[in-house]
Amino acid sequence: MRITGTGHASLRIDTPAGSILCDPWVNPAYFASWFPFPDNSQLDWEALGDCDYLYVSHLHRDHFDAEHLRRFVSKKATVLLPEFPTSEMRDELEALGFTRFLETKTNQVHELDGGLKVMIQALTSPTDGPIGDSSLWVEYDGVRVLNQNDARPTDLTTFHALGHVHAHLLQFSGAIWYPMVYELPEAAKRAFGKQKRDRQFDRTFRYIDDLKASNVIPIAGPPCFLDDELWQFNDIFGDEGNIFPDQWVFQQEYAKVGGTNSTVLLPGSVMELTADSAETTHPTDVEEFFAHKREHLEEMRERKRPVIEAAKASWRHPEVDVLAEMKRRIEPLLDESVYLAKGVGGPVRFDLVGYDGESVESIVVDFPGKEVRHYDDEKVRYRFRTERALIEHLLFIEEVDWVNSLFLSCRFSAARIGQYNEFVYSFFKCLSEERLQYAEGWFAEQKPDAEDIKLGDWVVQRRCPHLKADLTRFGIVDGKTLTCQLHGWKFDLPSGRCLTSVGHELRSRPAGTPAPGADPDAGTSGVAPMGGEPVEAAAGGE
User: Fold this and answer.
1) How far is residue 459's CA from residue 532's CA, in Å, rounded to a whole number?
2) Distances (CA, A) of 460 to 279, 372, 486
3) In terms of DSSP bridges, do strands 481-484 and 382-387 run parallel, antiparallel, or are they unpaired?
4) Quick check: helix, strand or coil at residue 208?
5) pLDDT value of residue 515
6) Distance (Å, rounded) from C-alpha 519 to C-alpha 102?
């Protein structure tokens, strides 16, 4: 089996039974804020795109590059389609000209022509990517690869049960806006960033240890930021709170925990993989390349500057009445929303900075009142500040996912009172009838976890209230606080209160004490009540 690195989360897998191109991303994403690094735009994409199968893990625009897919990927390729709850991915690929689809079943092995086997595990929580994320397992002639990319499965036992994996490709770096965009003192922002950076590595190392693959390949990050306004987000300033460490930093951190089996794939690197060996050739010396990272970024910044300027010139739509269009698009969804609206629980304010850089129009999405209106000096728990042109553009193109556009662009600032509230971002990810109905149904079907486990001096429910991670594997107790290492969410054990987000109470009690209102010998538990006012979480949930 041959694995060719093609940048970020993109790779091509070649076997005698066929080739699979995964997540090809070349063009800037998220309002021209994210670019692949190292630069992959000069690869021979005509040849790389002449593939037998196409796999797109999810609809995040650093994985789903519509322009590139249209221009360079063969429409004769069969799309390996994850089993997602909505038809969006298939609809978008069909609009690009793809006609051949294999609709996979999650966790089911599909045998393709020539003995090539694939399995796709789809994650379908509203918080997984833009309504879905996935991982791809591939086997040919006893050689197995897991392309986990961005996905965060609660465990890897499904893949492990299929046999020893010879190459494990997974994300290690940040891919979010927290904490950089928050209006916090720099010292606090740096501390929160360091916590997140450390947690990212811890989660990655846990996945690696769980699967115990022969070879580990860090992929799916980080992006680079070439716009002068975002340049400070690149990890080139020695900032321990930067959440975007690169592949070479991963190598160093992995070595600190005893890791010796990782390989960095540059765009154009080729790994020849067998059950017993992995031989990799690179287009240039990897360590030398990252030693000159800043020079490479500066050269890219100048080369891509016209691309960024052209993108910025396309965003203004002064003919769009922002308030009227937000009312038209959002108010019908507010009327239909029960769980998301209740979860947000209050008004969310958007401060829109005019073309002059000074004037501001403040618009409120009032979730309890089910309306969009001008701000009326009331207290809000979430406030976003961004350029009016960006909102105009979202409304002009009828974007259904403001998370997978505005928020991931980092072209905004944010402030909040109290805890992180995942329902805010879940709603703005679901600005279509199909997405909203799915998210509402998903939250309606969530049921309490009846099984208890013992962690240290505490008895808690086995599954994390956030996304059902197994706390026997991901739960860490420090004093009276439990942290779920999968996403870093924290819980106060005496009260069961979630310290990271609104809601999501944990059932917990000291070991040796009966569950409230239960026979001590019955082995059942009550639900711990919420306690206290919301406080700023020790680490944000984003």
Assistant:
1) 21
2) 46, 41, 17
3) unpaired
4) helix
5) 73
6) 52
